[in-house]
Amino acid sequence: MPAPDSAASLQAAAASPDCIVTARAEVELGAMVALEVMAPCYRSERVAIHHQGMMFTEITRPDGSLRVSVPALAESALFIVSFGNGDGAIARAEVPVLPYYDRVVLQGQGGSGLGLHALEFGAGYRDEGHVWSERTGDVERAAQGDGGFLTRLGNSLVPGALVAEVYSFPTGGAKREGSVALTVEAEVTAGNCGTTVEAQMLDRRGSGRLGVNDLSLDMPACDGGVGDFLVLNNLVEDLKIAAR
Questions:
Q1: End-to-end alpha-carbon separation of the chain, Å?
Q2: pLDDT at 6 over 50
Q3: What gap in Å lies between CA 151 and CA 104, rounded to an integer?
Protein backbone atom coordinates (compact mmCIF):
# COMPACT_ATOMS: atom_id res chain seq x y z
CA MET A 1 0.00 0.00 0.00
CA PRO A 2 1.56 3.36 -0.97
CA ALA A 3 2.26 5.96 1.69
CA PRO A 4 -0.62 8.45 2.23
CA ASP A 5 -0.12 11.81 0.51
CA SER A 6 -2.69 13.95 2.37
CA ALA A 7 -3.93 14.49 5.91
CA ALA A 8 -7.32 12.95 5.06
CA SER A 9 -5.85 9.82 3.49
CA LEU A 10 -3.35 9.55 6.36
CA GLN A 11 -6.15 9.46 8.94
CA ALA A 12 -8.08 6.91 6.91
CA ALA A 13 -4.99 4.73 6.56
CA ALA A 14 -4.26 4.87 10.26
CA ALA A 15 -7.76 3.55 10.96
CA SER A 16 -7.20 0.50 8.74
CA PRO A 17 -6.02 -2.73 10.44
CA ASP A 18 -3.36 -3.01 7.73
CA CYS A 19 -1.86 0.31 8.86
CA ILE A 20 -1.54 -0.25 12.60
CA VAL A 21 1.90 0.70 13.93
CA THR A 22 3.44 -1.90 16.22
CA ALA A 23 6.67 -1.94 18.21
CA ARG A 24 8.52 -4.69 20.07
CA ALA A 25 11.51 -4.45 22.42
CA GLU A 26 13.84 -7.36 23.21
CA VAL A 27 16.87 -7.32 25.52
CA GLU A 28 20.28 -7.93 23.95
CA LEU A 29 23.83 -8.35 25.21
CA GLY A 30 25.37 -5.36 26.97
CA ALA A 31 22.10 -3.99 28.42
CA MET A 32 21.04 -3.11 24.88
CA VAL A 33 17.50 -3.33 23.59
CA ALA A 34 16.55 -4.37 20.05
CA LEU A 35 13.64 -2.11 19.09
CA GLU A 36 11.62 -3.35 16.12
CA VAL A 37 8.92 -1.23 14.48
CA MET A 38 6.40 -2.28 11.84
CA ALA A 39 4.49 0.55 10.16
CA PRO A 40 3.19 -0.65 6.76
CA CYS A 41 1.67 2.73 5.86
CA TYR A 42 4.73 4.74 6.83
CA ARG A 43 7.24 3.58 4.26
CA SER A 44 10.53 5.50 4.11
CA GLU A 45 9.02 7.92 6.63
CA ARG A 46 10.63 10.01 9.33
CA VAL A 47 10.04 8.62 12.83
CA ALA A 48 11.06 9.82 16.30
CA ILE A 49 12.19 7.43 19.04
CA HIS A 50 11.88 8.53 22.70
CA HIS A 51 13.46 6.72 25.67
CA GLN A 52 13.98 8.20 29.16
CA GLY A 53 14.60 11.70 27.83
CA MET A 54 16.81 10.49 24.99
CA MET A 55 15.42 11.29 21.53
CA PHE A 56 16.62 10.50 18.04
CA THR A 57 15.25 10.53 14.48
CA GLU A 58 15.24 7.60 12.09
CA ILE A 59 13.78 6.71 8.68
CA THR A 60 11.73 3.57 8.19
CA ARG A 61 12.68 1.11 5.48
CA PRO A 62 10.75 0.99 2.17
CA ASP A 63 8.47 -1.67 3.72
CA GLY A 64 7.74 0.49 6.78
CA SER A 65 9.94 -1.48 9.16
CA LEU A 66 12.73 -0.29 11.43
CA ARG A 67 15.19 -2.12 13.67
CA VAL A 68 17.64 -0.33 15.92
CA SER A 69 19.69 -1.38 18.96
CA VAL A 70 19.29 1.15 21.78
CA PRO A 71 21.28 1.35 25.03
CA ALA A 72 18.77 1.06 27.86
CA LEU A 73 18.66 3.94 30.33
CA ALA A 74 16.20 2.34 32.75
CA GLU A 75 15.77 -1.17 34.10
CA SER A 76 12.11 -0.98 33.17
CA ALA A 77 12.71 0.48 29.72
CA LEU A 78 9.90 2.27 27.88
CA PHE A 79 10.23 3.22 24.20
CA ILE A 80 7.84 5.56 22.39
CA VAL A 81 7.70 5.51 18.58
CA SER A 82 6.07 8.60 17.06
CA PHE A 83 5.34 9.69 13.50
CA GLY A 84 4.67 13.27 12.43
CA ASN A 85 0.88 12.98 12.56
CA GLY A 86 0.92 11.61 16.11
CA ASP A 87 0.48 7.96 15.15
CA GLY A 88 2.88 5.57 16.86
CA ALA A 89 3.38 2.74 19.31
CA ILE A 90 4.91 1.86 22.68
CA ALA A 91 7.25 -0.99 23.60
CA ARG A 92 8.67 -2.11 26.94
CA ALA A 93 11.54 -4.32 28.07
CA GLU A 94 12.97 -5.32 31.44
CA VAL A 95 16.77 -4.87 31.58
CA PRO A 96 17.96 -6.29 34.94
CA VAL A 97 21.67 -6.11 34.03
CA LEU A 98 21.61 -2.32 33.51
CA PRO A 99 23.04 -1.49 37.00
CA TYR A 100 26.30 -3.16 35.91
CA TYR A 101 26.78 -0.43 33.28
CA ASP A 102 27.53 3.28 33.45
CA ARG A 103 26.17 5.29 30.53
CA VAL A 104 26.72 8.81 29.22
CA VAL A 105 24.66 10.30 26.39
CA LEU A 106 25.41 13.31 24.18
CA GLN A 107 22.39 14.34 22.14
CA GLY A 108 21.45 17.20 19.86
CA GLN A 109 20.78 18.02 16.22
CA GLY A 110 22.63 16.27 13.43
CA GLY A 111 25.40 18.37 11.94
CA SER A 112 26.14 20.11 15.24
CA GLY A 113 29.79 19.06 15.02
CA LEU A 114 29.76 17.62 18.56
CA GLY A 115 31.21 14.23 19.42
CA LEU A 116 31.61 12.19 22.60
CA HIS A 117 35.07 10.80 23.46
CA ALA A 118 36.10 8.31 26.15
CA LEU A 119 39.74 7.82 27.12
CA GLU A 120 39.96 4.56 29.02
CA PHE A 121 42.61 3.95 31.71
CA GLY A 122 44.94 6.79 30.72
CA ALA A 123 44.73 6.30 26.95
CA GLY A 124 45.54 9.25 24.71
CA TYR A 125 43.80 10.36 21.54
CA ARG A 126 43.99 7.69 18.81
CA ASP A 127 45.33 5.12 21.30
CA GLU A 128 43.73 1.70 21.70
CA GLY A 129 41.64 2.87 24.65
CA HIS A 130 40.22 5.90 22.85
CA VAL A 131 36.54 5.15 22.15
CA TRP A 132 34.70 7.52 19.81
CA SER A 133 32.69 7.60 16.57
CA GLU A 134 35.57 6.22 14.49
CA ARG A 135 36.50 3.49 16.97
CA THR A 136 33.33 2.48 18.73
CA GLY A 137 34.52 -0.51 20.75
CA ASP A 138 32.79 -3.86 21.02
CA VAL A 139 29.65 -4.90 22.90
CA GLU A 140 30.86 -8.48 23.43
CA ARG A 141 34.15 -7.31 24.96
CA ALA A 142 32.23 -4.93 27.21
CA ALA A 143 29.97 -7.75 28.39
CA GLN A 144 33.14 -9.58 29.46
CA GLY A 145 34.39 -6.53 31.38
CA ASP A 146 37.14 -5.65 28.90
CA GLY A 147 36.20 -2.09 27.90
CA GLY A 148 33.44 0.26 26.86
CA PHE A 149 31.63 0.92 23.60
CA LEU A 150 29.93 3.79 21.79
CA THR A 151 26.51 3.61 20.13
CA ARG A 152 25.41 6.16 17.55
CA LEU A 153 21.68 6.73 17.14
CA GLY A 154 19.72 8.74 14.59
CA ASN A 155 19.93 9.48 10.88
CA SER A 156 21.89 12.71 10.52
CA LEU A 157 20.96 12.99 6.82
CA VAL A 158 17.36 13.85 7.75
CA PRO A 159 16.86 17.65 7.92
CA GLY A 160 16.60 18.76 11.53
CA ALA A 161 17.18 15.22 12.79
CA LEU A 162 17.95 14.53 16.44
CA VAL A 163 20.96 12.27 16.99
CA ALA A 164 22.68 10.80 20.02
CA GLU A 165 25.97 9.16 20.97
CA VAL A 166 25.95 6.84 23.98
CA TYR A 167 29.08 5.62 25.75
CA SER A 168 28.63 2.49 27.88
CA PHE A 169 31.13 0.95 30.31
CA PRO A 170 30.63 -2.28 32.31
CA THR A 171 31.65 -0.75 35.63
CA GLY A 172 29.98 -3.52 37.63
CA GLY A 173 32.05 -6.21 35.94
CA ALA A 174 35.31 -4.50 34.95
CA LYS A 175 38.47 -6.60 34.99
CA ARG A 176 40.78 -3.68 35.82
CA GLU A 177 40.64 -0.56 37.94
CA GLY A 178 41.30 3.03 36.97
CA SER A 179 39.28 5.80 35.36
CA VAL A 180 37.68 6.78 32.08
CA ALA A 181 38.02 10.43 31.05
CA LEU A 182 34.99 11.76 29.19
CA THR A 183 35.15 14.79 26.92
CA VAL A 184 33.06 16.44 24.22
CA GLU A 185 34.82 17.60 21.08
CA ALA A 186 33.30 20.30 18.88
CA GLU A 187 34.41 20.64 15.28
CA VAL A 188 34.00 24.10 13.76
CA THR A 189 32.31 23.63 10.40
CA ALA A 190 30.85 25.88 7.70
CA GLY A 191 27.42 24.84 8.98
CA ASN A 192 27.90 25.76 12.66
CA CYS A 193 30.52 28.52 12.72
CA GLY A 194 29.26 31.76 14.22
CA THR A 195 26.21 30.04 15.70
CA THR A 196 25.20 28.76 19.13
CA VAL A 197 25.09 24.97 19.32
CA GLU A 198 22.59 23.47 21.76
CA ALA A 199 22.97 19.94 23.11
CA GLN A 200 22.23 17.86 26.17
CA MET A 201 24.08 15.26 28.21
CA LEU A 202 22.41 12.42 30.12
CA ASP A 203 24.36 10.49 32.73
CA ARG A 204 23.44 7.27 34.51
CA ARG A 205 25.81 5.54 36.92
CA GLY A 206 24.90 2.01 38.05
CA SER A 207 21.47 1.98 39.68
CA GLY A 208 21.46 5.76 40.26
CA ARG A 209 19.08 8.31 38.81
CA LEU A 210 19.53 9.73 35.34
CA GLY A 211 21.31 13.10 35.45
CA VAL A 212 20.67 15.83 32.87
CA ASN A 213 23.01 18.64 31.82
CA ASP A 214 22.11 21.18 29.11
CA LEU A 215 24.92 22.48 26.91
CA SER A 216 25.05 25.77 25.00
CA LEU A 217 28.21 26.55 23.03
CA ASP A 218 29.00 29.70 21.07
CA MET A 219 31.05 28.56 18.08
CA PRO A 220 33.93 30.67 16.73
CA ALA A 221 33.36 33.03 13.81
CA CYS A 222 33.60 31.64 10.29
CA ASP A 223 36.58 33.75 9.25
CA GLY A 224 39.44 31.39 9.90
CA GLY A 225 37.84 29.12 12.49
CA VAL A 226 36.47 26.42 10.18
CA GLY A 227 38.30 23.13 10.65
CA ASP A 228 39.37 23.80 14.24
CA PHE A 229 38.34 21.62 17.18
CA LEU A 230 37.24 22.69 20.65
CA VAL A 231 37.71 20.18 23.49
CA LEU A 232 35.18 20.59 26.30
CA ASN A 233 36.22 19.07 29.61
CA ASN A 234 34.36 18.72 32.92
CA LEU A 235 30.91 18.52 31.35
CA VAL A 236 30.42 15.18 33.06
CA GLU A 237 32.33 13.46 35.85
CA ASP A 238 34.90 10.86 34.78
CA LEU A 239 34.04 7.22 35.43
CA LYS A 240 35.81 5.64 38.40
CA ILE A 241 36.41 1.92 37.86
CA ALA A 242 37.14 -0.68 40.52
CA ALA A 243 38.21 -4.15 39.39
CA ARG A 244 35.73 -6.94 40.20
A1: 54
A2: no
A3: 10
